[in-house]
């Protein structure tokens, strides 16, 4: 088809398009949904008995805050990446993930944990994170699908980090195991697993 | 320089400050090419066909110049240009008039161009294959109207069901894009995308048959 014919076919019966919802509004919506889902999920499982005591410790709050920051920052970055040409703070996100991992180790060492690492418990926490993060992940994916990302691998990988980090921010309120290896594998691991997995399937899931 | 966007048209869409609701330019006597494209895209988002046509024509020439630097084959460069224009069409709702237009355009251009170049280079691996052994009948054998019709029917039959239906509606039944979209339940953009892909696939089908003569 010649260019002129092609352009005419695109312009014919052109309909007005609503501009994309701003990244800030979309992020706020995602945060509300995620908060509702995670609080409901947490109410369905038992809260750790020493939660009040833990909430008074600096390292525990630091762990929760860092995971939550990574979740929100990653979701914001992913939502920003759905706009072609928009600059997203990927380096800041990488730094935030490092801080989060450090906070897990800091919390574990400050608790002077003596109990041994259990792979079964770690896998249980990973499964809980996957379950808790499924709906927030889906919502974030649908919000991103409305855009037109030119970095599908990176965008979906960041979605994986956002959904798992948000769930990991709430999980310590239920999980009573503070072993360093447990925290890194069971709580932090899903972010890397899903980030990596989504990196590969990004181009097929975010095709437009 | 990004256009200033502290005004809105009747639909509530943000438009550059120097664009009046009627489309007249004010406050500035001359505007740069980028500002003009941003203005045209803003009008296109509001459904202005004329502005959109003008924008696509200007962008087409710009995109083609960039694509031709990467591709020697003019026909292929035209195909890639159309693919990029289609991507711009599909992503037009993501343009934010408060941001500069060219980085948005270049991000889409780079994305689609890389994708197309990857496909082209992957396809070159098979160019040395002898396709004459695959097809007994070659395109040069097709000379009569009946045979041309037959070749087109073959090309049409080679399409997936949805694309075949779209081509039949638009080219054989003479329906408009709007009518065909209503009949199929697709959006108009989706229909146009399907039609474009169908034409491309049919052209590829017929070219591959023609190429067997060589």
Strand order of the largest sheet of chain B: 1-2
**What is the 3D shape of chain B?**
globular
What is the average of the pLDDT values of chain A? 91
Largest interface by Cβ-Cβ < 8 Å: A-B, 26 and 46 residues
Radius of gyration of chain B: 21 Å
User: Could you report the average pLDDT of chain B, rounded to the nearest whole number?
Assistant: 75
DSSP E strands of chain B, number? 2
Name the helicity range of chain B. 55-70%
Biggest β-sheet description of chain A: none
Indicate the low-confidence ranges of chain A by residue numbers: none
How large is the share of residues in beta strands of chain A? under 5%
Over the alpha carbons, how many angstroms does the gyration radius of chain A reach?
20 Å
Tally of strands of chain A: 0
Structural class of chain B: mainly alpha
Based on secondary structure, the structural category of chain A is: mainly alpha
Distance between the termini of chain B: 52 Å
Give your account of this protein's structure:
The complex is a heterodimer of chains A (about 210) and B (about 210). With about 210 residues, chain A is an all-alpha fold. Chain A has helices at about 5-10, 25-45, 50-55, 60-80, 90-110, 120-145, 150-170, 180-205. Chain A has eight helices and no strands. In chain A, helix 2 (about 25-45) runs antiparallel to helix 6 (about 120-145), helix 4 (about 60-80) runs antiparallel to helix 5 (about 90-110) and helix 7 (about 150-170) packs antiparallel against helix 8 (about 180-205). The longest helix of chain B has 24 residues, at about 190-210. In chain B, a hairpin with a 5-residue loop joins strand 1 (about 5-10) and strand 2. Chain B has helices at about 35-45, 50-70, 75-90, 100-125, 145-155, 160-170, 175-185, 190-210, and strands spanning about 5-10, 15. Chain B has eight helices and two strands; from the N terminus they run ββαααααααα. The model of chain B is unreliable at about 1-20, about 25-30 and about 135-140 (pLDDT under 50). Chain B is globular.
């Amino acid at each position: 088809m010649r260019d002129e014919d092609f352009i005419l076919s695109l312009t014919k019966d052109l309909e007005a398009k609503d501009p994309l919802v701003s990244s800030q509004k979309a992020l706020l919506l995602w945060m509300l949904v995620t908060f509702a889902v995670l609080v409901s999920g947490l109410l369905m499982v038992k809260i750790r008995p020493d939660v009040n005591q833990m909430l008074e410790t600096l390292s525990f709050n630091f762990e929760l805050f860092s995971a939550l920051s990574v979740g929100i920052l990653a979701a914001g970055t992913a939502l920003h990446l759905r706009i072609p040409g928009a600059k997203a703070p990927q380096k800041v996100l990488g730094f935030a993930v490092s801080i989060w991992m450090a906070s897990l180790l800091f919390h574990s060492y400050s608790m002077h944990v003596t109990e041994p690492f259990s792979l079964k418990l770690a896998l249980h926490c990973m499964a809980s994170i996957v379950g808790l993060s499924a709906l927030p992940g889906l919502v974030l994916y649908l919000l991103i699908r409305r855009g037109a990302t030119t970095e599908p691998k990176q965008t979906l990988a960041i979605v994986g980090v956002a959904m798992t980090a948000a769930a990991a921010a709430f999980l310590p309120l239920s999980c009573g195991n503070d072993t360093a290896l447990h925290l890194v594998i069971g709580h932090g691991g899903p972010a890397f697993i899903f980030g990596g997995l989504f990196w590969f399937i990004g181009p097929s899931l975010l095709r437009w | 320089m990004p256009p200033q966007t502290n005004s809105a048209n009747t639909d509530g869409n943000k438009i550059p400050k120097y664009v009046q609701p009627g489309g007249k330019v004010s406050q500035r006597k001359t505007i740069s090419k980028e500002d003009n494209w941003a203005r045209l895209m803003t009008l296109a988002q509001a459904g202005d066909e004329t502005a959109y046509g003008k924008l696509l024509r200007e962008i087409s020439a710009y995109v083609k110049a960039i694509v031709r630097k990467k591709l020697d084959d003019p026909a292929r460069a035209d195909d890639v240009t159309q693919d990029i224009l289609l991507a711009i069409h599909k992503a037009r709702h993501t343009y934010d008039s408060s941001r500069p237009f060219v980085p948005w355009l270049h991000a889409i251009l780079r994305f689609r161009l890389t994708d197309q170049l990857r496909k082209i280079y992957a396809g070159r691996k098979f160019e040395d294959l002898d396709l004459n052994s695959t097809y007994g009948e070659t395109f040069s054998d097709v000379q009569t109207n009946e045979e041309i019709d037959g070749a087109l029917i073959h090309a049409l039959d080679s399409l997936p069901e949805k694309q075949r239906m779209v081509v039949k509606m638009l080219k054989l039944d003479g329906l408009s894009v709007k009518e065909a979209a209503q009949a199929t339940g697709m959006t108009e953009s989706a229909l146009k995308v399907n039609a474009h892909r169908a034409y491309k696939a049919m052209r590829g089908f017929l070219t591959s048959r023609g190429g067997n003569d060589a």
